[in-house]
Amino acid sequence: MKNLDELARLESMDNGKPLFESRYVDVPSAAECFYYYAGWCTKIEGETIPVPGNYLNYTLREPLGVCGIITPWNFPRSLVAWKLAPALACATPPWSRPPKRTPLTALYLGRLCQEAGFPTE
User: Fold this and answer.
1) Pairwise CA distance, residues 45 & 56, whole Å
2) Alpha-carbon distance 87 to 100, whole Å?
């Protein structure tokens, strides 16, 4: 939300939607998505649940690999947030390909991720 005005301006320049909609709908809903999934980071445990009977029951933790994020042009900020936030909450490395016609907000988000200290390799 600290970068609300810049993100809203880029979102409107990118796909031609009204600035009001970008500022008061798209960017805040994307931020809310990140806030929501940030709360899940400490709640995804994968604990083994006991079962009755003579059964072997265990939890196997293994990485699933990279999460590919391909988003369309019409809601580039919101749609990337809906996919990127849960991947980050689960410590799954994301790979994002922004839409060719509306790349500005995705590129700006990449810059914000670098400023926040996200690993880039």
Assistant:
1) 19
2) 22
| pTM for the structure as a whole | 0.78
Most distant CA pair in the chain, distance: 62
DSSP letter, residue 74: S
Residue 23 scores a pLDDT above 70: yes
**pLDDT tens for residues 40-97?**
888 877 777 888 899 888 887 777 788 888 888 777 778 888 988 998 888 888 888 8
Give the residue among 30, 35, 33, 37 at the shortest CA–CA distance from 11: 30
Pure H helices in the chain: 4-15, 19-21, 27-38, 76-89, 104-116
**Tokens describing residue 55:** 């059964």
In sequence order, what are the residues at sequence separation of 6 or more whose Cβ sits closer than 8 angstroms to the Cβ of residue 31?
1, 4, 81
Backbone angles phi, psi at 69, to 5 degrees: -120, 110
Q: Please tell me the total number of residues recorded for the chain in this structure.
A: 121
Q: In the structure encoding, which two tokens stand for residue 86, read together?
A: 């849960």
